[in-house]
Amino acid sequence: MSDWRKMNKDELEHQFSPSRWSHRMSADDLIRAHVAALKAGTEKARSVTQTLLDVPYSDGDGEKLDVYVPSSSSPDVPLVIYFHGGYWQFLSKDESGFLAVPLVQRGVVVVAVGYSIAPKGNMDLMVSQVRRSVVSVIQQYSHISGLYLCGHSAGAHLAAMVLSTDWTQYDISPQIKGAFLVSGIYDLQPILSTYVNEPLKMTEEVALRNSPSHFLPQLKLSSASCDIIVAVAQNDSPEFRKQSEEYFKALESAGLNVSFEDVPNTDHFNIIEQLVDENYHLTKLLLKMMGKS
């Protein structure tokens, strides 16, 4: 396998431009189609489920949640917290309810988290925000039967950072039962020299302290009993695939409950878009993880 350290800037930018690896359409069309799919899915979810929108989880401007609530009042209610992708500089919680319909129908609460994307927010702030969002959700929904995380791309990175949290500085220690990490990035160093870092302005020090691959001992301490699924698209770039494979192997070597899903006939975008479909492989896996299959 190639080493990213031997790649020049152009090669790195190609490897870390997910839209250039799909076989479905051109890069620009793909991004437009992705946003349209997420928006349409979220509009549908808002029209057919009960929602609580813009619930603050902290005092900051963008620190709000959207909650999608099942109509049944079963005491056994799992809750999924979703962290959106967009390379930490794009998208928001307002397009992040698309996965709610098949989950809410099975009695699952879905929470979409807003965080301060770059350039307004930096990486340290975003990681701090998603951690605080989890603390707030637990305080607001103390009756849930299990807490699960789901994140796509940059959101999978943020979910992995939540799993690696030292909760001693918070007054709460969340028992996260499961995490669904989809087409994520777990080592931020390769993107430092690329266009991705222009609005983030990360130094090497910032990248290292926010790379989940460097926090396996903490993850093992904080999330030892968590079921983790690392999923990657068949048509993700080689470097994206390598990041998922290496993170999976590191979690497995650390003795964690982890499985790897290489999803055929998907690219970086439709691997997550298809969660609107209750018959999609990853939707079924997510429901199974929560005992709702």
TrEMBL record:
<dbReference type="GO" id="GO:0005829">
    <property type="term" value="C:cytosol"/>
</dbReference>
<feature type="active site">
    <location>
        <position position="268"/>
    </location>
</feature>
<dbReference type="InterPro" id="IPR027519">
    <property type="entry name" value="KFase_ver/fungi-typ"/>
</dbReference>
<feature type="short sequence motif" description="HGGXW">
    <location>
        <begin position="84"/>
        <end position="88"/>
    </location>
</feature>
<dbReference type="InterPro" id="IPR050300">
    <property type="entry name" value="GDXG_lipolytic_enzyme"/>
</dbReference>
<dbReference type="Pfam" id="PF07859">
    <property type="entry name" value="Abhydrolase_3"/>
</dbReference>
<comment type="similarity">
    <text>Belongs to the kynurenine formamidase family.</text>
</comment>
<comment type="pathway">
    <text>Amino-acid degradation; L-tryptophan degradation via kynurenine pathway; L-kynurenine from L-tryptophan: step 2/2.</text>
</comment>
<comment type="function">
    <text>Catalyzes the hydrolysis of N-formyl-L-kynurenine to L-kynurenine, the second step in the kynurenine pathway of tryptophan degradation. Kynurenine may be further oxidized to nicotinic acid, NAD(H) and NADP(H). Required for elimination of toxic metabolites.</text>
</comment>
<dbReference type="GO" id="GO:0004061">
    <property type="term" value="F:arylformamidase activity"/>
</dbReference>
<comment type="subunit">
    <text>Homodimer.</text>
</comment>
<dbReference type="GO" id="GO:0019441">
    <property type="term" value="P:L-tryptophan catabolic process to kynurenine"/>
</dbReference>
<dbReference type="InterPro" id="IPR013094">
    <property type="entry name" value="AB_hydrolase_3"/>
</dbReference>
<feature type="domain" description="Alpha/beta hydrolase fold-3">
    <location>
        <begin position="80"/>
        <end position="268"/>
    </location>
</feature>
<keyword id="KW-0963">Cytoplasm</keyword>
<dbReference type="InterPro" id="IPR029058">
    <property type="entry name" value="AB_hydrolase_fold"/>
</dbReference>
<dbReference type="GO" id="GO:0034354">
    <property type="term" value="P:'de novo' NAD+ biosynthetic process from L-tryptophan"/>
</dbReference>
<feature type="active site" description="Nucleophile">
    <location>
        <position position="153"/>
    </location>
</feature>
<protein>
    <recommendedName>
        <fullName>Kynurenine formamidase</fullName>
        <ecNumber>3.5.1.9</ecNumber>
    </recommendedName>
</protein>
<feature type="active site">
    <location>
        <position position="236"/>
    </location>
</feature>
<keyword id="KW-0378">Hydrolase</keyword>
<dbReference type="GO" id="GO:0005634">
    <property type="term" value="C:nucleus"/>
</dbReference>
<keyword id="KW-0823">Tryptophan catabolism</keyword>
<keyword id="KW-0539">Nucleus</keyword>
